[in-house]
Here is the input.
Amino acid sequence: MSKKNLIIGVDFGATFIKAGLVDSRGAIIKKSVFSSADYPKRESLIQRIVAEVKALASSAHSRVIGLGIGVPGPVDCKKGIIYNLVNVKGWKMAPLKSEIEKKISVPVFIDNDANAACAGEAMWGAGRGYSDIICVTLGSGVGTGVMIEKKIFRGRGYSAAEIGHVCLDIDGPACNCGANGCIETFIGNSYLVKSVVEKLKSGEKSSVLKLAGFDYSAITPKLINIAAKKGDKFCINVWETAGRYLGTALAGVVNIFNPEIIIIGGGLSKTGAMLFNPVRKTIKRRSMKVFTKGLKVCRARFVQDSGTVGAAALVLHELNIAEQ
Ligand SMILES: [Zn+2]
Here is the structure.
């Protein structure tokens, strides 16, 4: 890719859609954001996305070589069809790629947002220079992208590596996917907060309740983090436990894929050592020794913009163009 060429990345979130003009080094030159709730109909939302993309492209000082879109659900990336979006209505078997390609003149690539985040880290972030990467995004769910020999691993239906829905406890809490005890039910934002609230209501003591103004509904992972950093034992234990669960799931992943690096991103990655230490310790204890020698577990480079940058990286990944 010429250093001057640009890419547009779109992060199709359940509540916000972010679009960014990205350069050949992964830096966002210009970005825009709008609420998807303002466009309840698929056609009108597509029109708005196209309008944003055209506005970014016309502001570009040089050629735009493609558009990448990361979506919050399973995708057939070859045909460019969204199978289904759990949190956005009206997107079942939606041919997003062809509908957008009719309206713009650059190639369009779509994929699951976790795969896009993995492409972003591999191209410009913590995974740069590695071939075999596991990239985990901790948000309301647990998204995962797997890269094997520098290629995103997609499986038969192009939607593999939903590690967030690997079961850790066969009698565990009910998960949105219909199963129960998935890793997501232990470390996904809403489940994590729900379990904290339940414990506090049943009498456990923590300063996080005071930080939340004694309002259970105001408790967030951020507040749990603040309390833990101030030495609150209950909250330190929340991260220790979450880290052990995540580490257990990742230990299984290490045994299957033997990756060189595990990259952890998303909002919860800001928790830092309190989460990462139990994750690292558990992976080491529960994986095959030969696989953990030299294995790196580190924070993602992109957190806030991982969706936009990742979607742009997807274009390069699919066009098989190395960053220069
Ligand atoms: Zn599940």
